[in-house]
Amino acid sequence: MVKIGEINLGEFPLLLAPMEDVTDPPFRYVCKMFGADLMYTEFISSEGLIRDAGKSVKKLDFEEYERPVGIQIFGHDIDSMVAAARYAEKAHPDLIDINFGCPVKKVVAKGAGSGILNDIPKMVRMTAAVVKAVSLPVTVKTRLGYDEEHKEIVDIAERLQDTGIRALTIHGRLRTTRYSTPADWTLIGEVKNNPRMFIPIFGNGDVNDPVSAQRFKETYGVDGLMVGRAVYGNPWIFRGIKHYFKTGEMFPPVGIEERVRISTLHLERSIAWKGERRGIMEIRKHWSAYFKGFPGFKPFRIRLMQAQTGEEVKNILYDIRERYAGREIIRGK
C-alpha cells in the first residue's frame, strides 16, 4: 500500500494534477466519480492567501467527498509560504503540497514555481520551513531541473526528503522544456531506484492513456502516476487506466449518452459554484475534449462557445446527443 503519512492511497494511486482554471471543485467532482485517488486544489498564491485575496481564498474550497485532497501553494518568499501553509491548514485538507514545478513565465520570473530550481538551497530552506510550520503531511511537486545544464533532480529529491516531506511528484520535463517535447522519465526512474529514497515517488508527464500509464508503471517502478492535461474533458481516464491495469484490456469507448450526462453534470456544478456567467465561461475549455473524435462537431463547438445561459448550453448538449445517438466515437478514451 502507498501511504502519505497516515493517508492510505491503495496499491498504485492515480493522482489528478493541480491545474489552474481546470481542476476546480466541479471538475474534481467528476474525476472523483471515475477513480481519482488523490486530488489537489488549483495552485494558490501564497501572497494572495496572506492578503486574503478573494480568488485565492476561494480556491481553498473543497467538499468531503474529495478526500483525500491536498491544497497546493506556491510563492517566492519563505515567510509568506509559511504563513500561507498555516492559513491553508485551517481549511483542514489532508495534506499541503508545494508547487516547485509551474513553468509559467510570470510565476518563474518571481522565483516561484519552477523558477526556484535556479536556487536549490532556497528551495530546500523553504520546504523545511513549511514542513516545520504545519502538522499536516507536506508533499512537493517539481521538475527534473531548470535547464539541460542543471538536471539535478536526483540530488534535489534526497535533499527535499531530508526536510521531512512525505511524498514527491516529479514532472519529467525541465523548466525550459516545452510540452511538444516528450517527457523524460529516465531521471524519475533514477530517483525512485535510489536506495536512499524511502518516500513515495509519483511520476508525471505524458500519462495520456492506459497504455502509456502501464509503460511508465512497469518501466520506472514509480509508486503512482499523476495525470495532467490528458484529463481535459476526460474524467474517465482514471477508470480506463485502472481497468487496463487489472484486465490488460481497454475499457469500451465512452458513448454519447455518457458524455452528455457527465458534461451536463459538470456544467451544473460549475454554475452552482461560480455563478452562471463565469461557470459557463470556464467550462468552455472542456467542450472539445468531451466530444473529441465525433466527426462534424465544429458547429456544435461554436454554439457551445457562444452560449450565454445554462439552459442554452443544455439545449445544445441535447442536440449533440440527438445528432450522435448510436454512433461510435472515432478515438475511444
Q: Which key phrases capture this entry?
A:
single chain, 333 residues, alpha/beta, TIM Barrel, Non-ribosomal Peptide Synthetase Peptidyl Carrier Protein, Chain A, 2 domains, 8-stranded parallel β-barrel, 14 helices, 11 strands
Question: Which geometry do the CA atoms define?
Answer: globular
Overall structural domain count: 2
The overall strand count is 11
What CATH architecture of the largest domain would you give? Alpha-Beta Barrel
CATH topology of the largest domain: TIM Barrel
Overall pLDDT: 93
CATH homology-level superfamily of the largest domain: Aldolase class I
What share of residues is helical? 40-55%
Class from secondary-structure proportions: alpha/beta
- SSE pattern: EEEHEEHHEHEHHEHEHEHEHHHHH
Distance between the termini: 27 Å
Q: Main beta sheet, described?
A: 8 strands, parallel, barrel
The residue ranges in which pLDDT falls below 50 over 5 or more consecutive positions are none
**CATH top level assignment of the largest domain:** Alpha Beta
Using only CA atoms, what is the Rg?
Answer: 20 Å
